Amino acid sequence: MEFQSPRHLARRTLKNSSKLKSEYPHSLQLYSVPPSETIGLQELEDWAVERLKVLRAVERVNLSKNTKFSDDWKNALKNDLQKQNIDSWYKLSSSIKDEKMDEIICKTRQKDHVSHFLLRLAYCRTEESRRWFISQETDLFRFRFSMENSEDIRIFMKENKMNFQPIPDEEKKKILTKLIHAMSFNASKIDTVEYYKVPFTEALDLVRHRKVYLQAGYAYVPNDELVSIITAMFRSHLSLAMALTIRSLPELEDDHRIRRLLNDFDKRYTGQDFNALQNKFSGAAITPEMLDGLSKQSYPLCMRHLHETLRSTHHLKHGGRIQYGLFIKGIGLSLENSLKFWREEFSKNMDIDKFEKQYAYTIRHNYGKEGKRVNYSPHSCIKIINASVGPGENHGCPFKHFDAALLRQKMTTNRVPQPAIQEIVDLVTRHHYQIACQRYFEATHNTEVDSGIQHPNQYFIESQKILNGEVKEKPKGAHKVQTIRATLPAKVEKPDPTDENHEILSESVLAAIDMDDDFT
């Protein structure tokens, strides 16, 4: 894969749709061959950011109330992608017959291919990043696989040399009774179901859940369950590829362009820009006098803590001033009112001349009126969570940086119900900080947030919508937030000999369980 700087983009030759179609004949890919196109740096970055949005959407839906890969789960993911205007990332099926869509599909397949390899480079650096990437990519693959018809699946398997052949009718009739006992669907449909004879070591997940019939070292897999086997192959292939990628990273980072592109890419914020100096919800401009009331009604815990600390101590250290100053700028506090707010509070501990000399510059700088004159955006949840917080500092994320006792105290003071406090603390223990913030929102607003909390200013806006009657409340506690760790394939556990059902397992199944250690 070659990279071009923007000044060289005019010399680039774009591939037409027919050539792209020949290179990307199928919507599903195992990403075995790296891309070789010449691509502009800006386009490359745009594609990578789009894919990151897709993977984060998969993660959000995984943490919702919906059962994984159910129809509700799939619809939730589609809706999330549609809201972000990136629904073309799942409309890649070969069965779509539309000339206008055909060109879009081919281009998106190319984006899918190229961006996957770029994110491999960004997420191969740590074990935690690799696990997250592999988990989301595997779920995205399975989601796309579920949208393919039988013919497209056969073509995909043939192209990738997955030699799974349906068993002949004669063999099927011989073991028909045993297949009926093993099947998880209506027995009346067995005549219309194709079975594939697969080495049992490639169907360990199905063996673990007793969904297949085993005989002579082979698993007889119904066509609806092939997704489990092929997804496991995809995960195994990607795990190996990530291990190889980390070895190549030092050489690739010799190129300063790719190094700049990949630097902290996994921490990049991909949500809405909240750098707007307006308040659409109160009907009036935000003034310093309104902040006390708003902090109790609509502030996330991180910003409420900063506001209360400022009010009680009349001072915040640099990190707190930046985090809170950009937040109140984002909710609509003008530069003039911001200077007034900080000046009135700080002047309780110092004279006004000292404030003007030491602190006013930073406030004007946040609004793009000093220094490089950059109009800075409010900090996202990701940036706040990853902030370094030293002794005596109050910025950062309370769900990450507070100890459990202080966090419980803060939530009790803010009248969060005790059951919700316990649930939030449990989420924090498992490092689900943004989900904990979402649960805090739900507990304090008596509603649910389907899209999750990605930004403090998003929290403020969603709160204002509810308080102003723009969004109907959903009964609190109607659903629990499910949390799912991003992990590599789970190991199969051997059954407890004291379990009365353990004798149902055959020796072949036990052999498969023993070999599961090698699989992971």
UniProtKB/TrEMBL annotation:
One Gene Ontology MF term: 4 iron, 4 sulfur cluster binding
Domain DNA primase large subunit C-terminal: 294-460
GO cellular component terms listed in the entry, alphabetical order: alpha DNA polymerase:primase complex
Superkingdom classification of source: Eukaryota
A single BP term in Gene Ontology: DNA replication, synthesis of primer
Cofactor binding description: Binds 1 [4Fe-4S] cluster.
Keyword DNA-binding in record: yes
Signal peptide per UniProt: none
Classification via Pfam families: DNA_primase_lrg, DNA_primase_lrg_N
UniProt cross-references to PANTHER family, sorted A to Z: DNA PRIMASE LARGE SUBUNIT
Described function: DNA primase is the polymerase that synthesizes small RNA primers for the Okazaki fragments made during discontinuous DNA replication.
Family statement drawn from the similarity comment of this UniProt entry: Belongs to the eukaryotic-type primase large subunit family.
Protein name (Swiss-Prot/TrEMBL): DNA primase large subunit
Organism of provenance: Daphnia magna
